[in-house]
Amino acid sequence: MKAQRPAPGDLIQTEILALLGAAGPLSRAEIAQLLRVGTATVTDHTRRLIGEGFIRELKPHASSGKGRPRVPLQLVPTAAHVLGLRVAIDHLAGVVVGLDGQITDEFRLPLRVAESPVALLTRVLQEQIEARRNTTPIRGVGVAVPGMVDPVSGVVRLSAIMDWHDLPLAAELGRALPVPVLVDNDLRSSTTAELLFGMGRDHDDFLVLGIGDGLGMGVVLERRVQRGADGFSGEFGHLPVDRTGPRCNCGNRGCLQSFVGQTALLERARRAGVELGPGYGLSELVDAAERGEPAVLAVLEEAGELLGRSVAGVVNVLAIKAVKVIGESLVLWPHLGPAFTAAAVAGAIEPLRDLEITVAPWRDTEHARGAACLLLARSGAITRA
Ligand SMILES: [Zn+2]
């Protein structure tokens, strides 16, 4: 049997909900065994969850031995819904999620820049909450923003891509909306979803590498999503790799993302002589790679190698055994992946070379689901008490 897991108190309740959602009805003893916590802890938390109506007791199984009959507990996924919103450069992606982390509804809206961000988000969220008032009442709202966000205060310190500076988003939305609001960085939001419903099933420590225009890294240690001072952790794209390299949007030279970010890849392909046409973007790069253009394949292979070697550095520092890769640039993974994997494994110290690298198709709703999971991860935020 595995050692008892580190057990941050407020997460246990959520993990019980997540487990029942995935595995179906289980007895308290089975939950305790699967979550690697004590039975008394499970009994304590399930009492509260039954009180909330989030789980219910089923008819006891006849006991096979002498002990008391085992009472299976069942999740009531529809007992509460939360709304997650992803802010992207040109659109908003939203989802409604039940207690089991499953998406029950989703929406997508273009982002117009004419309105102030707070006014726009307030209006959209008010409409969405109101529209569901009689069907699936929303207990809380999570918002995932690209950039540096302090998740405790919910202040967006800097979102270069949105041009937001020191925006107290959680406080402003919280004043206007009838439910609790949590705001965090988009990658950390998705990392929270991974902890509850994905990688966290098998690992107490793991990394989530986000590849898109920027590069981010979610770090989970002892089942906690690491936030760092003021919530600025995870700025993997600004790993300094070459002091003579190109100027990065952070002001420094030669940051990792100025070599392997989406814009950098496009620019490097163009300089290598690849015809990308006016207004080219990621899909043109994918097409060129699929056509087997040698210059593009060389750029992507080199980028994959650099990325893999950089990840190996973090793996070695934190003794990590599992990495999940997410993000828009995953469409390039067939061309980035082989060099990435080879470099990450080769760069890892010997005891960490069985590094597990997981890739799944990227969906636009993922950061939105992550935002919803910010609420689920603090189940106290959505209880009636
Ligand atoms: Zn930088």
TrEMBL record:
The residues covered by the HTH marR-type domain are 13-58
Q: What GO MF annotations does this protein's record show?
A: DNA-binding transcription factor activity
User: Could you name the domain of life of the organism this protein comes from?
Assistant: Bacteria
| Regions that span the bilayer | none
Kindly give the Pfam families that the UniProt entry links to this protein: MarR (PF01047), ROK (PF00480)
InterPro entries given for it? ATPase_NBD (IPR043129), HTH_MarR-typ (IPR000835), ROK (IPR000600), ROK_cs (IPR049874), WH-like_DNA-bd_sf (IPR036388), WH_DNA-bd_sf (IPR036390)
Q: Which SUPFAM superfamilies does this one have?
A: Actin-like ATPase domain, Winged helix' DNA-binding domain
The family line of this record is: Belongs to the ROK (NagC/XylR) family.
Which PANTHER family is this protein grouped with?
BIFUNCTIONAL UDP-N-ACETYLGLUCOSAMINE 2-EPIMERASE_N-ACETYLMANNOSAMINE KINASE, ROK (REPRESSOR, ORF, KINASE) FAMILY
This protein is called: ROK family transcriptional regulator
